Amino acid sequence: MSEIMDHARQNDGQQGADAGGGTKVGIEAGTGTGTGTGTDADADAGVATETAVGRDMDQITPLSSTGLSRRKLLAAMGGLGAAVAAGGLLFSVPQTVKAAISGDVVSLDSVADIQTLNLTTLTDGQHFSVRSFHPGTTVGGDIFYLDKTRPKSAHNGASIVSITVPWDGMPASLEAFLSGTGETDPTGTGCLIRLYGESITPYMFGALANGTADDTKAIQRAIDFAILLGKGVVIEGVFQTSYLRIKNGLVYLSGGNGGGELKAISGVGLAMIELWGPFFGGQVQAVSGCTISGLRLNGNHLAKRGIFGSASNQCVITGNSVYNLYDAAPDDLCGIRLHRGCTSNKVIANHIQLPISPAGGPFLQAAGIQVTGESINGYGGFDTGAFIPPTEVCSHNLVVANHVENGSHGIWLVAAENNTISDNICKGQLHRSIILSPQVSNNVVSGNQCLDFDSSGIHLAYGSNYNIISGNKCRALSSAGEGGIQLYVGTVGNVVTGNEIYCGSNYGIYAAVESTSHKITSNIIVASRNRKAAIAVESDWNSPLPANAIYSRPNYGPPPAPRTVWGISATGHMDISDNTIMEPAAGIAAIYLAQLNDAKLTGVNVRGNVIIGAEPNHYWYFYEQTAGKSTGNQLIGNSAAGKNVTRQYYSRGRDQIGVVANNVPGDSLVSYDVPSGTTQPSAALADYVSLAAYTAATSVTDFTGGVEGQEIIVRLSIHATIIHNSAKIRLKGGKNLKGLSADYYINLKRISGIWFEVSRSF
Predict the structure, then answer these.
(1) How far is CA 626 from CA 146, 206, 512, 546, 623, in A?
(2) How many angstroms separate the Cα of 747 from the Cα of each of 678, 731, 744, 758?
(3) Using an 8 Å Cβ cutoff, are 461 and 440 in contact?
(4) Which of 283, 413, 434, 703 might form a disulfide with 440, Cβ 3.0–4.6 angstroms?
């Protein structure tokens, strides 16, 4: 507390010396005192009045009878003097210093020279200009004054320096000097007190920033000192450090105007900068209200993380660069991490350059920014078949306008709620650009650019619910990925809207396996590089895949033990609407729905989507593996630029969908031209079925794939005979229709599984 008391003394009243009309006393150099009244006393005592500050330096009269002018004093004060001349003095000048100005300022080369002073020959309040901290350098100096009453036990080597603590000026003995080791008069008094501004610097504690010295302890002491005073630390220069611990009370750690650099010299610790909290053990008070800004954190291929916070709140991490992290082996690397209980922090405009996994491996797990609460289960409980909530969340944090390059993950949220991830650029991630998994809910992910990812642009899984994914751009040319945006295994109620997706992944947007109640709307998918589908929903994963599940994800087998199957509960109740699918690749389905194994697919509403440009293999492809497990799904008002009705597929007919209406092509008057010789044409592909292409005599015994209440128009053929059968097709008069030309039509309606003739054109 001695430092705090020191500041209290500096801010004491002026003891009557400044009182209007009072007596002012100045201590002359050497011996003797002068007294005076009013403004005349200022000159007699050698005390400059405040009106002198900012006046032309050439016109200021000497401050004492010894000839010490204000110009000479400011010159002795160096950079601090310049601040005084400009009216920018940041500290309150104590009375003892005012008294001392009447004497010459003593110049010292370094802090090490302070021990050469003879206390008995010096005047209380005497001023000292110390050029540097270490001999032979130019940093760490300041203006000091002598306080003969200050206990030497208050020595800290920086703001309070005992004259009788020995130091040889060498970096190796710096820590001992700062600790007061070797004090020869421990119960005595008399110290030099440093005058400093609102910011603390590591140079005050002997940091060298010379490229070889380990400045960790000096910087740490500066941080600890600033915490005591409720101040901040400015880092200017390149400092070699291991790791620094910030505890509650530090106002800021700043790179200043020059963008200070911390260069790791070891991999010890969780991060180069640790914001302490409960995670670090014991009853540690979390850091609150601290700003870390403008720093270059050079991991030097040794440090695993840049900044790590535990339960930090209302902190701002902005404008920093993190690069050269450890890259020799697989590890949990991270640029910036907010962990376990971090709330209301802002991570803004940082640049993080992550290592790249070496060719041929091993895979490096490296994330740019992590917001990670505490979860006891990496699958959110879905490996056991039941959701397990997180035990401690990170919430209400803002991650905005950061730039993350390379690594495996750009931004990763775990057990995180009510956070905003906005306007970031994530580029070149080997796995996911932005990942919400597990147990990540009620977050907003908007306006981000996910570029050149391998696996997925934005990924949600394992109990990540009710998030808004909007206005993001996911663009990648890699042909190894899973999906531009994907949601699977126990995700509920997410909104995916207004995103732009162009990638070489299996899918543009993908939802699967116990994934329900999503709204996927108004997205633009340029699907020219997709390998499976532009939009896909499937109820389960299976390996090997059924023969006709041609657009299902191919690379998944059983879940981890103890679970034996994935699809325990249904997938569905989704709104997939008003999306624009542009230039779909030739071999894909624009829209794919698949019910697999016994996992239900239910209540998926596919409506108002538009397919523009190139012809895909299928406009929409609906597959049902187990009869009766696909229920309540709808295909309404979708349109494709092409008119080929055969580019649709219903594995069990329209009945597996539930409602099929107003689609183009399909149930419009674009005809389905049935191949010649087909005995049971499909009524699933269109409401207009033409037999005109038949070239050989064929008996038509049924129209398969129809749905209850469906009406179809059948164009006849001289080669086709429609067979009357009370169980399948009931024709008027109970007679077959045979040998009628293509100029004739009949209308049929499906009721209770039977086609009834409604009318005929002849």
Answers:
(1) 90, 75, 17, 11, 9
(2) 19, 10, 11, 5
(3) no
(4) 413
- With tokens 């979390």, the residue in question is 286
Give this prediction's pTM: 0.85
* Helical residues (DSSP H) of 126-237, grouped into ranges: 174-178, 216-229
Say which CATH superfamily domain 198-413 falls into: Single-stranded right-handed beta-helix, Pectin lyase-like (2.160.20.10)
Q: H-helix or E-strand containing 425? A: strand 425-427
SS3 of residue 73 by DSSP: helix
Q: Map residue 74 onto helix, strand or coil.
A: helix
Burial environment of residue 27 by CB neighbours within 10 A (0 to 12, 13 to 18, 19 or more): buried
Is the CB of residue 228 less than 8 Å from the CB of residue 7? Answer: no
In sequence order, which residues have a C-beta less than 8 Å from that of residue 37 and are 6 or more positions away?
Answer: 21, 22, 23
Could you please report the per-residue DSSP string of 475-510? EE--SS-SEEEEEESS-BS-EEES-EEEESSSEEEE
Is residue 216 classed as helix, strand or coil in its secondary structure? helix
| Measured torsion, CA atoms of residues 107, 108, 110, 111, in degrees rounded to the nearest 10 | -100
Contact assessment for residue 353 and residue 323, using Cβ atoms and an 8 Å cutoff: yes
Closest CA to 47 of 32, 63, 69: 63
- Find, among 490, 284, 290, the residue nearest to 387 by Cα: 490
Exposure string of 372-396, with b = 16+ CB inside 10 Å and e = fewer, is bbbbebebbbbbebebbebebbbbb
Measured CA to CA, the distance from residue 62 to residue 46 in angstroms comes to: 8
Quick count: other Cβ atoms within 10 Å of Cβ 657?
Answer: 24
Chain-centre distance for alpha carbon 230: 29
Cis ω before 544 (30° cut-off from 0): yes
Euclidean distance between CA atoms 358 and 355, whole angstroms? 9
Report the C-alpha gap between 124 and 104 in whole angstroms: 13
Nearest residue to 750 (alpha-carbon basis) of 686, 704, 688: 704
Q: Mean pLDDT, 10 residues at a time, over the chain (762 residues)?
A: 35 32 30 34 29 30 32 42 38 37 78 94 95 96 97 97 96 96 97 93 97 94 97 96 96 93 89 94 90 97 96 98 87 94 98 88 91 89 82 97 97 98 97 97 98 97 96 92 95 98 97 97 98 97 91 84 86 98 97 96 98 96 95 96 94 90 88 96 95 97 94 97 97 94 96 96 94
Both tokens of residue 718? 């001289």
Residue with tokens 């596919």: 606
CB neighbours (10 Å) of residue 736? 15
CA distance 24 to 706: 107
Q: Which residues have C-beta within 8 Å of that of residue 7, sequence separation ≥ 6?
A: 229
Q: What angle do CA 258, 263, 267 make, to 5 degrees?
A: 155
Q: How many CB atoms lie within 10 A of CB 409?
A: 26
Round to whole Å and give the CA distance between 553 and 550: 9
Q: Is 241 helix (H, G, I), strand (E, B) or coil?
A: strand
The secondary structure element, H or E, covering residue 79 is helix 79-85
CB-based contact 579:526 (threshold 8 Å): no
Torsion angles phi and psi, residue 386, rounded to 5: -145, 135
Considering Cα of 93, then 98, then 101, then 105, what sign does the dihedral take?
negative
Beta strand 127-132 pairing with 106-110: parallel
- What is the pLDDT, as a whole number, of residue 95? 35
What's residue 103's pLDDT?
A: 52
The DSSP secondary-structure symbol of 36 reads: E
Tell me if residue 173 falls in helix, strand or coil.
helix
| H-type alpha helices, 179-245 | 216-229
Closest CA to 661 of 690, 627, 684: 684
